[in-house]
Amino acid sequence: MLSRTVLRRTRPLVSLARSTQFTRLNSSKPDPAEKVFKEYEKPLEEKEKQDHVDTLQGLKNKFSDKIQETKVKLGDPNVTEGMEKLAGREVFEKYSMKLQEKAKELGIPVEDLKQRFKDEIERVRTKLGGADPTEELQALLKKQEEERKKDGTIKIRGMRDPNAPEVPYKVLDDFIDVEKARHLPREDIIKIWNARFANNDRALHAVLTHLQFADLYTSAFKYPLFILPVPKPLQDGYELQYVQWQFVGPETINCMFTTLAEYKLHGEYASPHTTLTFHLELADDKDLVLMNGYVDKESGITMEEAHLLVVNLQRFYSGKYPEKTKLLKEFNAGDENFNIDELIQQATTV
């Protein structure tokens, strides 16, 4: 079994103030994604002066002529080395338009996606580290489509308060009595953990073995940043979600999601719509890594979309799929070969 010492060996801890806030992993490096936004940087700056855009649809409407002109000539993203400044914030415009254009180009309606996603997600709600998180995505996408029929708006929230007081990250003791749990059978701890969040309809929770989490951690340690697409049926395309892992404590690891639109506008002050926390306190003696998370109700992200993100997080970070690992590596290295079309394909096929 991979020891917990290995799991924690060298990644520096972020400050408590940033335990649920996006951060720069290397402030000494220039932003390698600046040139990706040359076509959109100026209009975006002007729009930011006008309340930072209320919705992505508003932004698209304002620059519809420019978008239509550039849709047909968007090529592979040209990103240089060193994506460590949270590169996702600088690829929003180009990638978002390319995603939506690709959906139309390939003619991938929701019904077709359902077939491609068949048997994808059944176990994600409580078994993030299960043997295979690839069942029942069909039901998930059906629920997602129903939600989007009610409200297809892509919401962009305001920035978080830069002067907000520091908030310590939560450890396992904030949810259960760890010392008492150490004297309980493993199965009893699992039941207690599941019951702890059963009545919260915005909560996510899961139970992993030490080795299952070690697989995720190995990839997260190497590739702490990524983007994942979420289908948006009413927009006839996808919305990119920015992913960042944070190693906030010796036994606590966070994974946060926000829309790339919000990260583009607000940078490190963007608010995560979904935050997952992995607790390692019982990893050694009980072979348990407990995960809990929360999805912001005001974010516009449905629970089905959050579950889809968690499924793909596991698929890309499990280390079991070479093509997915290749995309993680390319994105974090700022490789010019990183390809959104390939990302969509890998995220939407079993």
TrEMBL record:
The entry's family comment says: Belongs to the ATP11 family.
Output this protein's name: Protein ATP11, mitochondrial
Q: Name one GO cellular component term.
A: mitochondrion
Record keywords: Mitochondrion included?
yes
- UniProt subcellular location: Mitochondrion
Q: Could you name the domain of life of the organism this protein comes from?
A: Eukaryota
Give start-end of the signal peptide.
none
- Biological process terms in GO annotation: mitochondrial proton-transporting ATP synthase complex assembly
Print the keywords alphabetically: Mitochondrion, Transit peptide
Q: Which gene encodes it?
A: ATP11
Q: What is its main location?
A: mitochondrion
